[in-house]
Amino acid sequence: MQQDIDDRIRQRAHQIWEEEGRPDGKSDEHWARATAEVTAAIEAEAAPKPKRAPRRTKKTDEATAEGGEATPAKTTRKRTPKAAADSDASTEAAPKKRATRRKKTEET
């Protein structure tokens, strides 16, 4: 495990050295920077991902009614008669074009 980390640090330090134009005398600086980057990457990989709340389904609501953990049921909205009529009308036929009004011009 440690050997893998050292290899990653060595490769990253070499990459930094090449990116900076292969300067002389900066090996300690490159090594320190590579160590910090690789360590941060390893910690990010090892960090536990936050758990999401489970999705609510009809089955989970039924299970809670049988004696499981009680959670409030999600309410659904009902369609109003006007909204239902509008959606039904839009699927049956294309809307009619509105007639445009022409402006009256004054004749002198």
Model description:
With 108 residues, this protein is mainly α. The chain has a domain at 1-13 and 28-46. It is built from four helices and no strands. The protein has helices at 2-19, 27-46, 58-65, 81-92. The chain is elongated and about 90 Å long. The chain starts with a helix and ends in a 16-residue tail after the last helix. Residues 1-108 are annotated as: Disordered. Residues 49-58, 96-108 have a biased composition (Basic residues).
Question: Could you list some keywords that capture this structure?
Answer:
mainly alpha, 4 helices, single chain, DUF2934, 108 residues, DUF2934 domain-containing protein
Residue windows where pLDDT falls under 50 for at least 5 positions: none
Helix tally? 4
Globally, the shape reads: elongated
The helix/strand series, from N terminus to C terminus, equals HHHH
Distance between the termini: 98 Å
* Sheet having the most strands: none
> Roughly how many Å is the radius of gyration?
34 Å
Structural class: mainly alpha
Q: DSSP strand (E) fraction?
A: under 5%
Q: Helix amount, in percent? A: 40-55%
Tell how many strands the DSSP assignment holds: 0
Q: Please tell me the overall pLDDT.
A: 76
